[in-house]
Amino acid sequence: MKRNTYISAAASVVLIVGGPVAAATAASADTARTVTSAAAAVPTAETAEEASAAALKHYPGLVESLDKDGSVWHVDVISKDGKGHAELEVAADGTVTEENVDTDEDAAEHKDLIAAKVTAEQAMEAAVAAHPGQVWSVGWEDDEDGGAHYWEVEVRSSDGKTWDAHVDHATGKVTQSGSDSDNTDDNDGGN
Q1: What average pLDDT is seen over the chain?
Q2: What pLDDT is recorded for position 5?
Q3: In whole angstroms, what is the distance from residue 148 CA to residue 29 CA?
Q4: pLDDT single digits (tens) 5-50
């Protein structure tokens, strides 16, 4: 009986002394999980697709153009009614800065972009499917004759080659593409 009392007393001491330590350890583990989860939830904008998503979350509409300059993405977004235009900068950490916002645009000027069946994001996807790599820029263009519109997408492959793809605005088909050979411009910021 005395033995049981000693064991119970010793166990109580361990629990009393170890309890706060165990609770602190458990709390630290919970805090670490919270911090890790929060860090994982922070969006980044290291790719064109991520920069586009960050820009559209900040200023809803349609991407008209997007290009990388060092570690910053320049993104032009047109509102869905065509009356708004935002020039945004998206940092690699996903931070969006408004460089210029105009709310009295001529909607007729953007009617073809608004009517396009293929978005900038879909054009990027089609271009990368045709030429694997990373999108460096996308822009809404028209041919030299002032006729049909298309998306021009610049894709950089892992071997350093740059591909320019024209993506049809109605079908998403890559209608023309060509290599600009090795990447020699300075806009890559060492990336």
Answers
A1: 78
A2: 46
A3: 59
A4: 444 444 444 444 444 444 444 444 443 333 333 333 446 889 999 9
Q: Across the strands, what pairs with 147?
A: none
pTM for the whole structure: 0.70
Give residue 68's identity as a one-letter amino acid code: K
Q: Residue 146 has what pLDDT?
A: 63
Residue at 2: amino acid letter = K
Count of other CB atoms within 10 angstroms of residue 118: 18
Distance CA 36, CA 27 (A): 14
- Alpha carbon 161 to chain centroid distance? 22
Number of Cα atoms under 13 Å in the Cβ half of residue 91: 6
Structure tokens of 190? Answer: 């060492």
SS (H, E, C) the chain: CHHHHHHHHHHHHHHHHHHHHHHHHHHHHHHHHHHHHHHHHCCCCCCHHHHHHHHHHHCCCEEEEEEEECCEEEEEEECCCCCCEEEEEEECCCCEEEEEEECCCCHHHHHHHHHCCCCHHHHHHHHHHHCCCEEEEEEEEECCCCCCEEEEEEEECCCCEEEEEEEECCCCCEEEEEEEEECCCHHHCCC
Cα–Cα distance, 21 to 175 (Å, whole number): 66
Long-range CB contacts (< 8 A, 24+ apart) of 96-105?
Answer: 96/54, 96/55, 96/57, 96/58, 96/59, 98/58, 98/59, 99/74, 101/59, 105/78, 105/79
Gap between the Cα atoms of 75 and 87, Å rounded: 6
